[in-house]
Amino acid sequence: MRRKASLVLLACAVFCAALAPLLRWYAFPRVARVPAGQYQDMVLEARNATLLDYGTMRAKKVPKVTIVQTLKGDVEAAKKIGRTAGRPVVVWDSLSYVQGPDGKMVSKVPERYVFDAHSQDPVHATGEMVDGDPVKREGIEFKWPFLTQKRDYEYFDAQTRTTNPIHYRGTRTFRGLTVYYFEQTVPWTKVPMPKTMPVRGITPESVARTGTTRWYTTVRRFWVEPVTGAPVYGEEIHQEELRGGTLLGGRAKVTAFAGHVKMREDYIDHTVALVRHNRTLVLALTSYVPWGSLGLGLPLLALSLWLQARARRPRDPAPTPTEEPEPVSA
Fold first, then answer.
1. Separation of alpha carbons 330 and 325, rounded Å
2. Which of 151, 166, 169, 283 could form a disulfide with 155 if both were Cys (CB 3.0 to 4.6 A apart)?
3. φ, ψ dihedrals at 197, nearest 5°
4. With contact defined as beta carbons under 8 Å apart, do 21 and 290 qualify?
5. 85: three-class secondary structure by DSSP
6. How far does the chain reach from its first CA to its final CA, in angstroms?
7. What per-residue confidence (pLDDT) applies to 303?
């Protein structure tokens, strides 16, 4: 019985030892993926901002500018592109909608972003675009990879359509979570006019004929939870200017928008709660179960070897019965 029990325990120990790397290196890349059908929205605000009044072409202070960002997964497009690419992909259709304090639209910029469901590396496919302009992204956008490292990453900027480093600036604590802080500065760059303008009859083509150009700079900041790679908070110090041309009436430049854009408080709470939940799931695949499996396998192996040694130990020979001496007759 000891030998049979030893073999059973040995089999369990081998299973536990094999399960640990199997979960970490095989199951994790196949299970930890961004859902293809994910939908999420985010509201950001810039209070006491500067905004251009297109009626007078003068910049003025406003109490608040609101930016609503939505991300919607296109499942059918993801399946189609994934078959061609030979790997699971996610297709996000996003919209950045900016509105003034009166609720009227200031600008809206759609995007289509195609990326690997696990690594978040961009996948180039037909339809990849920003505001209708075809682009070929390099680097990440919106989300960092699972198990984010303490290093700089390449980050795509939708306004300039360029990729620049976003720098790791240290580890911090945010709402009880350990996060990595990243920062990127985009210098003043000439950028295209939005396809949809806030004033009826004004188009990018009509503005271009006046000789007026649009320029942009920003300081972009993200607090990223490293296990999931999800930003739990983000903000931008954002500035836009119109420069030159007859549209400005002889002025060299005018501020189109300037403000410190921050996530709204209720969306911060929702994001932190969601990231906490997903963090536990990722840790189960990368840490909790693999290390627990190894921790269980070692005592099982030790117990198996101990039982095997007990089974092989020679038993003491049984004592031979001694015969009683026969009585001697006198």
1. 15
2. 166
3. -100, 155
4. yes
5. helix
6. 56
7. 65
> What tokens does 314 get?
């020679």
Residue 134 CA to its chain's centroid (Å): 23
Token pair, residue 276, equals: 């906490």
Q: What are the CA-CA distances from residue 166 to residues 6, 47, 156, 163, 183 (Å)?
A: 55, 25, 9, 9, 5
Distance CA 215, CA 226 (A): 33
Please tell me the distance from the alpha carbon of residue 223 to that of residue 171, in angstroms, as a whole number: 9
Distance CA 139, CA 125 (A): 15
- Residue 124 CA to residue 113 CA, distance in Å, equals 9
User: Residue 198: helix, strand or coil by DSSP?
Assistant: coil
**Angle CA 233–140–125, to nearest 5:** 135
Instruction: For 123-152, give the DSSP string.
Output: ---TT-EETTEE----SB-S-PPSS--SS-
Q: Which two tokens stand for residue 126?
A: 């037909």
> What CA–CA distance (Å, rounded) separates 98 from 197?
11
Mind listing the pLDDT tens digit for each residue in 136-185?
999 999 999 999 999 999 999 999 999 999 999 999 999 999 999 999 99
Ramachandran bin of 147, using left for φ above 0, alpha for ψ from -120 to 50, beta for the remaining angles = left
Instruction: Provide the β-strand partners of residue 263.
Output: 44
Q: By 3-state DSSP, what share of the chain in percent is helix, strand and coil, each rounded to 5? A: 30, 40, 30
What is the DSSP code string of 164-197?
EEEEEEEEEEETTEEEEEEEEEEEEEEEPPPSS-
pTM: 0.86
